[in-house]
Amino acid sequence: MTTFDASAAPQNRTLAALGGILVYAALVGFADNYVKVIAAEAGLWQFHATRSLMIFGLIALVALPLRLRLRPVNPRAVVARSLVHGTAILFYFGSLAFLPVAVVAAGLFSAPIFVLLLSRFVYHQRIGPFRVAAVAIGFLGVILVLGPTEGEVRGLATLLPVLAGALYAMGNVATRQWCAVESAETLTAGFFLALGIIGLVGMAVLAVWQPAVPEGAQGFLLRGYVSPTRTFLLWTFVQAAASLLGVGLMVKAYQLAEASRVSVFEYLILPISAFWTWILWDEGLGTQAVLGMALIVAAGLVIALRGR
Predict the structure, then answer these.
(1) Which of 64, 113, 266, 287 is the most buried (most CB within 10 A)?
(2) Where are the extended beta strands (E) located within the chain?
(3) Is the alpha carbon torsion for 236, 81, 167, 291 positive or negative?
């Protein structure tokens, strides 16, 4: 696999990347709040397979008018990046059935911390004491956000957002290092194709395994194919439309500026998701979670600013 030559890196367009991330955060923050509605109707695997099918239907409608360039320049790099990012988002959505969106997003957005660690240990970039301290502060923030509050018990599901964050970081670095010459639509299509295939494989496994499935959202991970309801189809389509536009903007942002910068902008999804949760479900966040998010954001800012 061909690695990216840093000396040939394009110029950073930071403000354009910020605009793309802002719209992405608003769309995804809204749509992700309805995953718990989807989780009560169907399973994670059917959701991803159905959403990818809808997304490719939308792509087919706009591909010719918009002259989308879908053929990859480096197919192996696109496949590798799609599998890594797709697996990260699989864990992310699996957590949404059990945890608030902003809490899951906080675990996912530990990604800048992992981006820094990858930059140091894989690409051998030097990191100073400020950014080392930021890593420690960021992980403390993750513990506060995902840790149980008084009188609350959380299971292994809380580890999924952190694992998603680590894989998401790998995908973000790959977007810049391996796929800088690819079009945003190529990477977006590859991402959703990977999720669709994962969804089909998951449904096939569950059709053979046939485990006992809990009722409602608790059965999100173990539920195989079920006859789709109108509610499932409606909110899956909302997810498809929001994700297609949002992820396309996110991918483009990572091509416009360094991953260490753009990953900080993605923190906008934390307050935006919390805002949508409050508006839609009248649910707020506790003091511990807010403090943890503040530490994660502070760590990301230090990483980005010291990286410049």
Answers:
(1) 113
(2) none
(3) negative
Rounded Cα distance, 267 and 106, in Å: 8
d(CA 12, CA 65): 29
Please state the rounded mean pLDDT for residues 197-213. 95
Residue with tokens 């988002």: 89
CA distance from start to end of the chain: 28
* CB atoms inside a 10 Å sphere around CB 65: 7
Structure tokens belonging to residue 44: 């994670």
DSSP annotation of 11 reads P
Among the ranges given (4-18, 137-151, 211-225, 280-294), the one the predictor scored with the smallest mean pLDDT = 4-18
Report CA dihedral (183, 184, 189, 194) to the nearest 10 degrees: 100
Determine contact, residues 133/47, Cβ cutoff 8 Å: no
Asked if residue 124 has pLDDT above 80, the reply is no
Three-class DSSP category at 219? helix
221: amino acid identity, one letter:
L
Alpha-carbon gap, residue 94 to 209, rounded angstroms: 19
Say how many residues make up the chain: 308
One-character DSSP codes across 94-153: HHHTTS-HHHHHHHHTTHHHHHHHHHHHTS-----HHHHHHHHHHHHHHHHHHS--TT--
At 204, the amino acid letter reads A
